[in-house]
Amino acid sequence: MVDRSKLKLSGIQYATPEIKSCYIGPEISDEQFIPEHIFFFLAKGFVEGYDGHKKYAMHSGDYCLLRKNNLARYAKQKENDQFEKVVVVFDEPFLKDFQKKHAFKTGARYAEGTFVFFEKTDLIPNFIRSLVPYYQRDGQIDDRFRDVKREELLLILLQLDSGLANILFDFSIPQKIDLKAFMLQHYRFNVSLERLAFLTGRSLSTFKREFVQLFKDTPGHWIQQKRLQEAHFQIQQKKRKPTEVYLDLGFEDLSHFSFAFKKKFGVAPSKILRKITT
């Protein structure tokens, strides 16, 4: 596994095929919770990913695996007015069938981290290029070849990093973890309390009860107040614009953020920024 959070492309250019955005596997929602393992290939553009711990930069030709049962989001930028990606979902039924067929076994525990990056190789771009003949107009791969191509990609990834077996073929649910540490790292993510409870290894009722005992507040109110405090810091101390802050902190729209901010601090976020810059 390669930690790409601090690495750049070191001047090396990797040829990327001419390819439209494509999705292979079951449909995954746009929420910031990752319910299944996802392979992500960036054909054109720039992506900055964030998992609550660190940020990861991805450029055209980069690829990674997003691990299931984690929180993550990304901000994208177009390249020459284009943004193209290939997303392959490895859902649990597919992985169980694959494991039976190929008899991959798990071993030592794999390092933590939501984004798993790989060393550069021609195998991945060549695989991406091989998808082109199977495209349909809707950007999907023909159903007759979908699982065949997923199997091919998975064999490539396991060849690049055999330790992935310990991630992909671990079908257990999240175990109970430190609630305080988890919330302080992930309060910025816009997901439901049910998701947060699941990821911390608790039922929803247990999550709520332990949360109140720990933080002396309800989860919903604590999360909003924590986000607003961080927003105030980002605007006043870091001089960031409200339009740059609200999405990063899990607010769904700017108007809701501005209303909540003014209610807490008595002044609109834009006015704080104007006072600092004038």
Structure explained in plain terms:
There is one protein chain. By secondary structure, the chain is α+β, with helices and mostly antiparallel strands. The protein folds into two domains: 22-168, Jelly Rolls (Sandwich), CATH 2.60.120; 179-277, Arc Repressor Mutant, subunit A. It has eleven helices and ten strands. The chain has a five-stranded mixed β-sheet. A three-stranded antiparallel β-sheet has the order 5-4-8, with no helix packed on it. β4 (46-50) and β5 form a beta hairpin. α6 packs across α7 and α8 packs across α10 (254-265). The longest helix is centred in the middle third of the chain and has 18 residues, at 143-160. It is globular, with a radius of gyration of 21 Å. The relative contact order is 0.12. InterPro entries: ExsA-like_N, Homeodomain-like_sf, HTH_AraC. It comes from Negadavirga shengliensis. Keywords: DNA-binding, Transcription, Transcription regulation. This is Helix-turn-helix domain-containing protein. Residues 177-275 form the HTH araC/xylS-type domain.
Outline of this structure?
This protein is an alpha+beta fold and 278 residues long. 40% of the residues lie in helices and 16% in strands.
What is the helix tally? 11
Mean pLDDT equals 87
Per DSSP E runs of 2 or more residues, the count of β-strands stands at 10
- Helical content band: 25-40%
Distance between the termini: 47 Å
Q: How large a portion of the residues is in β-strands, by DSSP E?
A: 15-25%
- The CATH architecture of the largest domain is Sandwich
Number of domains: 2
Tell me the series of helices and strands, N- to C-terminal: EEEEEEEEEHEHHHHHHHHHH
Largest sheet: 5 strands, mixed
Rough shape?
globular
CATH superfamily of the largest domain: Jelly Rolls
Backbone structural class: alpha+beta
**Spatial ordering of strands, largest sheet:** 1-9-3-6-10
The first-level CATH class name of the largest domain = Mainly Beta
Low-confidence stretches: 1-17
CATH topology of the largest domain: Jelly Rolls
Pfam family, one: ExsA_N
Protein name: Helix-turn-helix domain-containing protein
Keywords: DNA-binding, Transcription, Transcription regulation
Domain HTH araC/xylS-type: 177-275
